[in-house]
């Protein structure tokens, strides 16, 4: 008898579907949000998917039916072989890797040190430097590219040098990187660790190198991929600085397939895939750290 009463009481205490938190309305709302997100993702991914599909088709098939998954001539890897050869892929890949690698390393090292000084010094000079760097983020590159190229080209004669491009990439990426590092340093690196290192006899540089910088790993991974993608895919600045074909990066080499009167779209699609593939692989390996770094840098 008591068991029956207990079962009835338990059944009465169990919340009904309409009484649960959110209830049916929340479930319907969540489903609608997921559907909208899926539709948005499809709209975003369809152009990339069509680039990959058309990279296996002949030019006439792309012009006649660009949305078909398989052209009348079937699918072929010929475009990749021709694009690899005509764009001198290995030479352009080497240039892109050299410029992107050194630029990214320079940005990570310099911006982390600047951010550490700004956050820990807490002086008027540090605040002014930080304010100036943040203010520079609103200046569009297009407004300074002509004076920049004129100074480097006409006055200093530093165009057509890869190190000139690396220097420019580093300078333009510093403000955003310092901003993200500073946000993480304020919330994710306790001063007590640094004070313990000072007590053990570490200098400020040793403390930064052995204690602080390893703790910046999430933000570092985020900035590595963001800056590397920016440098790797950049076309405008390299086109202004690098005028000689042996110095071309992959985006510049890809543009060589565009003719004055006609373009081979199959080769262009294949070249685009070859250009994007290395940076996509890097992103897939670091995507967890990127998300962690973005969230950590936003919380103060």
What's a quick, concise take on this entry?
The chain starts with a helix and ends with a helix. 76% of the residues lie in helices and 0% in strands.
Q: If you had to describe this structure to a student in words, what would you say it looks like?
A:
Helices cover 76% and strands 0% of the residues. The N and C termini lie far apart (59 Å). The model has no long low-confidence stretch (mean pLDDT 80). It has helices at 2-13, 23-54, 59-64, 78-86, 89-121, 124-136, 145-155, 162-188, 191-199, 204-215, 217-233, 236-241, 250-255, 265-298. The protein has 300 residues and is mostly helical. Helix 5 packs parallel to helix 8 (162-188), helix 5 (89-121) packs across helix 11 and helix 11 packs antiparallel against helix 14.
Q: Which percent range fits the helix content? A: over 70%
SSE pattern, N- to C-terminal: HHHHHHHHHHHHHH
Shape: globular
Number of continuous helical runs = 14
Low-confidence stretches: none
What integer value in Å does the Rg equal? 27 Å
Largest sheet: none
How far apart the termini lie comes to: 59 Å
| Secondary-structure class | mainly alpha
Mean pLDDT, to the nearest integer, reads 80
Q: Give the amount of beta strand, in percent.
A: under 5%
Q: In total, how many beta strands?
A: 0
């Amino acid at each position: 008898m008591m068991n029956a009463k207990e079962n009835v009481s338990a059944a009465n205490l169990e919340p009904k579907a309409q009484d649960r938190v959110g209830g049916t309305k929340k479930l319907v709302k969540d489903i609608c949000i997921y559907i909208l997100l899926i539709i948005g993702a499809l709209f975003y991914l369809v152009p990339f998917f069509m680039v990959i599909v058309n990279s296996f088709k002949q030019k006439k098939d792309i012009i006649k039916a660009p949305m078909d998954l398989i052209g009348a001539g079937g699918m072929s890897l010929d475009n990749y072989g021709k694009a690899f050869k005509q764009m001198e892929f290995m030479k352009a890949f080497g240039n892109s890797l050299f410029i992107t690698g050194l630029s990214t390393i320079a940005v990570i090292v310099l911006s982390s040190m600047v951010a550490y000084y700004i956050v820990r010094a807490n002086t008027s000079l540090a605040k002014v430097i930080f304010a100036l760097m943040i203010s520079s983020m609103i200046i569009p590159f297009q407004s300074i590219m002509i004076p920049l190229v004129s100074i480097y080209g006409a006055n200093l004669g530093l165009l057509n040098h890869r190190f000139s491009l690396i220097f420019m990439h580093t300078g333009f990426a510093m403000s955003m990187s310092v901003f993200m590092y500073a946000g993480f340093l304020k919330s994710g690196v306790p001063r007590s660790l640094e004070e313990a290192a000072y007590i053990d006899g570490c200098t400020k540089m040793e403390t930064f190198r052995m204690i602080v910088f390893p703790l910046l790993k999430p933000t570092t991974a985020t900035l590595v991929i963001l800056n590397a993608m920016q440098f790797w895919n950049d076309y405008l600045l390299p086109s202004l600085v690098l005028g000689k074909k042996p110095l071309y990066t992959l985006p510049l080499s890809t543009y060589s397939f565009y003719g004055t009167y006609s373009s081979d779209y199959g080769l262009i699609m294949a070249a685009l895939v070859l250009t994007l593939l290395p940076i996509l692989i890097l992103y897939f390996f670091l995507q967890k750290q990127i998300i962690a770094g973005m969230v950590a840098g936003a919380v103060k």
